[in-house]
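Researcher: Please predict.
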Amino acid sequence: MSLLASEGIVERGNGAVILAEHNILKDHEEIIEENLKIRINKMKKRGFYKPIIADYETNVILDGHHKWNAAKELGLSKIPTIFVDYFNDSGIKVEVWPKCGKNSITKEEVIEMGLSKYVYPPKTSKHSFDFEIPSISIPLKSLQD
């Protein structure tokens, strides 16, 4: 199975936004249903407006769980994604959200959960990046098979 759904680069920023196949990406965190509904409605109006961020070695989603799930609900097979070198990029930080039930979290724990059959509760991990996630505008129709 190919990682890329398209050979083209959608946009360049600090990282290339590529169209990854939806089914290769792995979640590590549950979503909040109300937030999912908001994302679905926003995407119906604006198209795919910001890429998700995933680890390039494991395909584990770091940021964008609600958009990934919204894409699934909308029948999208391609997901605008920026792949990063999670373990080796010191500009990517992870911490826990307040009142999530954990005192701390590591990058290793995030990946381990993403590769397992389990997921953390919603809003457990909070990632920050030393680059701005670019705004994009991709019609949903172009992300369907």
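Model: Residues 33-46 form the longest helix (14 residues).
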